[in-house]
Design goal:
Layout lengths: L7 H6 L3 H17 L4 E5 L2 E5 L3 E7 L3 E5 L3 H6 L8 E3 L2 E5 L6 H24 L1
Antiparallel strand pairs: 1-2, 2-3, 3-4, 4-6, 5-6
Helix pairs in contact: 2-4
């Protein structure tokens, strides 16, 4: 990337058309499932926040990296994630296939619930 993006739109405008198409699909699914999230750039990539860090994404050479930030969630979705390469909390969606919007929405809702539960736990202390 030529310069550090300050917004997600700037980030998307700086990447290849192939990557942009996939990331726009991913962004649409994220916003559909979690409209209350805050969208920003952090660590030079798009990040979504809701009661803390929720998910992030970035363009790679041949795939979209969707960072779930939750090891337990990734483990619980092991069977649904079989078609994709998974590394830690990151799921790789290849550019030549559509983004699995239903799966992304499921992940977003689960992550929001995790963060809500964490926030409740902190407020009880």
């Amino acid at each position: 990337m030529a310069k550090t993006a300050k917004t997600v739109d700037e980030y998307l405008n700086q990447i290849s058309p192939k990557a942009r198409k996939s990331l726009e699909q991913l962004r649409k699914a994220i916003k559909s499932a979690a409209p209350k999230t805050e969208e920003l750039i952090s660590y030079r990539i798009p990040l979504y926040k809701y009661k803390g860090h929720l998910t992030a994404f970035m363009a790679a050479k041949n795939h979209v990296s969707f960072v779930t930030m939750s090891v337990p969630l990734v483990k619980s979705l092991k069977n649904e994630l079989k078609p994709y390469k998974v590394s830690g909390t990151t799921i790789h969606f290849p550019y030549d296939k559509p983004i699995p919007a239903t799966l992304v929405k499921k992940i977003m809702k689960a992550r929001m619930k995790e963060n809500e539960e964490k926030a409740k736990g902190k407020s009880k202390k």
